[in-house]
Specification:
Elements: H1 2-17, H2 28-33, H3 38-67, H4 76-98, H5 100-106, H6 117-128, H7 133-162, H8 173-187, H9 191-195
Helix pairs in contact: 1-7, 3-4, 3-6, 3-7, 4-5, 4-6, 6-7, 7-8
């Protein structure tokens, strides 16, 4: 039961408290670029969840059973980026074949998952935090869900902004960044909730 509680704590903490976009400020490029429409935001969120889970499933054993045993820990970043790039290519090919409309709407931002520091950050932080395999998978799932939640929430906010009368100096990027800062501030309120989840 303690193991189950630990997994739930990791997921909840990754989604709400340590949200990679709103608390750690990783993955800002797709957050700002693909959050104009809800379907694009949700599609990007699902793609990032898939890539994060697959990247963790592949990089964790590579780190533990190959790099660490061979004394090649310093190659971690390069190896992880290569793994993530291969997974993104696989995801892009799959979307292009089975969901061409979503593939077209994501455009250039789909290949950018390769250089999305949120994906790389999750895989590296899982190792730095000393997580086991299942804990790492839970962390990746939570981080992916947190990324998707941030994207979908911000997409809704941006749709409301487009319907509003914005003063000329704040139109475009300024009001977008201001809205993002308010969403980020709101997530800091979850810090104490997760700590007392099973208290």
């Amino acid at each position: 039961m303690d193991g189950f509680k630990n997994i739930i704590m990791i997921i909840m903490s990754s989604v709400l408290v340590n949200n990679y976009v709103l608390s750690r400020f990783l993955g800002i490029c797709p957050f700002l670029g693909v959050s104009k429409k809800l379907n694009q935001a949700a599609g990007m969120g699902v793609a990032v969840i898939f890539v994060m889970l697959m990247a963790t499933a592949v990089t964790w054993p590579i780190q533990i059973y190959v790099l660490d045993r061979a004394g090649l820990g310093y190659m971690q970043t390069i190896v992880f980026i290569l793994v993530i790039a291969a997974l993104v290519q696989f995801t892009e090919i799959t979307l292009k074949k089975f969901l061409p409309a979503l593939h077209k709407s994501l455009g250039v931002y789909l290949p950018l998952i390769t250089t999305n520091c949120a994906v790389l950050g999750v895989t590296i932080n899982n190792m730095t935090d000393g997580y086991g395999f299942f804990e790492s998978m839970a962390s990746s799932l939570g981080c992916g869900l947190g990324f998707m939640l941030a994207m979908v929430l911000f997409s809704g906010i941006r749709s409301k902004i487009q319907e509003s009368e914005i003063p000329t100096p704040f139109r475009g990027l300024p009001v977008t960044l201001i809205a993002a800062s308010f969403v980020s501030l709101a997530f800091f309120g979850f810090a104490g909730v997760v700590d007392h989840l099973f208290a």
